[in-house]
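Input structure tokens:
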């Protein structure tokens, strides 16, 4: 049996739900898929997911964040149309005005009841975040598996 010449593993990413003044910070993506998204991106070689989250938040929004919690790890192979990713999602706080940078076209704070349509699985992530904020219930493996089977 010969070993595969190239492994096809999921790519590690981070997403950051940045809480601010009763809303969350979203970025409008400059690159496909275009649309509004939670700030985030790929983990660079040699950095932790925590370091990647802080870096990505700063690059995309100009904000220095304080990581407060880890919400969950999202890994549905269909979550990103470009390739299979898995994302460690953090909840963070920040002060200041968001300013678009890196590959973001714009960055804005949205009230939680006025969210725009979102790309990837970011609406699901924010629904899980809102549930956690209301009830203290984080997603569980059973929750995620039941979603995959529906």
């Amino acid at each position: 049996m010969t070993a595969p010449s190239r492994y096809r593993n999921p790519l590690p990413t981070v997403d950051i739900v940045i809480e601010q003044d009763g809303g969350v910070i979203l970025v409008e993506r400059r690159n496909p898929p275009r649309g509004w998204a939670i700030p985030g991106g790929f983990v660079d070689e040699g950095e932790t997911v925590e370091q990647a989250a802080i870096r990505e938040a700063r690059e995309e929004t100009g904000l220095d964040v304080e990581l407060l919690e880890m919400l969950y790890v999202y890994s549905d192979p269909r979550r990103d149309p470009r390739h299979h990713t898995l994302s460690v999602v953090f909840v963070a706080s920040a002060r200041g005005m968001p300013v678009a940078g890196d590959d973001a076209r714009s960055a804005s704070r949205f009230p939680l009841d006025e969210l725009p349509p979102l790309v990837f699985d970011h609406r699901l992530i924010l629904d899980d975040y809102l549930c956690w904020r209301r009830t203290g219930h984080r997603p569980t493996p059973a929750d995620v598996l039941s979603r995959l089977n529906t």
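Residues 31 and 82 are 12 Å apart (CA to CA). The radius of gyration is 16 Å.
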